[in-house]
Amino acid sequence: QAPESFPPLRNEAAVRVLLGRMKGIQGHCNSCYMDAALFSLFSCTSVLDSMLFKPFPLCDRNIQSILRDEIVNPLRKTGFVRARSVMHLREQLTEKGQCSSFTNAEKDPEEFLNLIMHQILGIEPLLKLQSGGQKEQDCYCYQIFMDKQEDLVVPDVQQLVEHSFLSSDLKLVEIPSCFIIQMPRFGKEYKMFSKIIPSLELDITDLLLDSPRECCVCGTVATLECA
Fold first, then answer.
1. 1 lies in a domain?
2. DSSP characters for 57-106?
3. Whether 166 and 90 share a structural domain
4. What is the pLDDT of residues 198-212, one digit of tens each?
5. Disulfide check for 144: which of 20, 87, 115, 164 has CB 3.0–4.6 Å away?
6. pLDDT at site 2
């Protein structure tokens, strides 16, 4: 355990602490969905550190302390989290979520995020989406759904998000404080793409609802949008 708090790893420190053997979060008993999610959310960014400290209305302080002291701080301090610590969290989630399979089965990352963010910590939804002018929807993460694109052999995240939003006729109602995206590459069987290139920056200009944008013909503020 690491009861003192450590900041997220950046630049050279991230490479030094996270690179090499016995680094990252140790997998055990189908924990990969949770390991990958926790590593993504906390290793190199502080945008969701409120999950570790803030006393939310529904907050379970025991689960919050396990997450902070047994997983996030050791990951940031030494670059390694043992499987026993993640299993401790899984056992507590099983108890709170009335779902016995959290300790042994492969789950969807979205199910894990909804449980810990909504039911256990009581965090406000991170995303507001609108589809085809209908009522807006609140959610904690966005899962990419799209048909197989023959011209996308090794896509980057920017391309996948744009294709997915376009095919689903979706828009972001507002700029999100945190944009968690689940790639179409998960589970033991399903892999739509053999590789996906991470986009180090994401341009959401064209994904925002009613956002003023430049006309690609004349350069003034656009009044029409062509998909």
1. no
2. TT--HHHHHIIIIIIIHHHHHHSEE-HHHHHHHHHHHHHHHT-GGGGTS-
3. no
4. 999 999 998 999 888
5. 164
6. 66
